[in-house]
Amino acid sequence: MATSLLQLQVSEEDQQDLGRVVVRFFHFYGHEFLYTRGISVLDGGRYLRIEDVPTEMPRNHRRSPLCIQDPLTPGNDVGRSSYLIWDVQKAFQHAFSVLRPALNAPEPCAAPCSLLGQLLEGYSPPQRVMPDMRPERQAPQREHGK
């Protein structure tokens, strides 16, 4: 979906601002994309008409709610197991409504800063739990034969 958006919907200038690309992704797939169409990223990308999906994906294809042609195996629909796409579409709509104000902010953030930086402000990635490897914390080792 992201590759298709970059191929068909986002200009090269806009690709320099990843924050705008993220917001555009949520807007496009939340509000504009017609889920009655298929997505192909082959040969520069295109949207497949529903009538063309069986000819593009010949292997006993039953159209799924989100139809994405596998670029490595064109007869494979990698979106075929996306049965909750309507919930995902609502999540995209919600994400866009939350992020849209950042696009229109007069002074989004102090320099140096980007829209993506502003969108991620306050985000804390999950902390990885690493085992404590200090020698004093290691369990004592038993000697063989005792």
Automatic annotation (TrEMBL):
Basic and acidic residues bias: start-end ranges: 131-146
Highest taxon of the lineage: Eukaryota
Alphabetical list of Pfam families matching this protein: PAP_assoc (PF03828)
Alphabetical list of SUPFAM superfamilies matching this protein: PAP/OAS1 substrate-binding domain (SSF81631)
Keyword Transmembrane helix recorded: no
Every PAP-associated domain range: 18-76
GO cellular component: nucleolus; TRAMP complex
Region described as Disordered: 125-146
One Gene Ontology term of the molecular function aspect: metal ion binding
A single GO BP: polyadenylation-dependent ncRNA catabolic process
Keywords, sorted A to Z: Magnesium, Metal-binding
InterPro entries: PAP_assoc, Trf4-like
Name of the protein in question: Non-canonical poly(A) RNA polymerase protein Trf4-1
Organism ancestry: Eukaryota, Metazoa, Ecdysozoa, Arthropoda, Crustacea
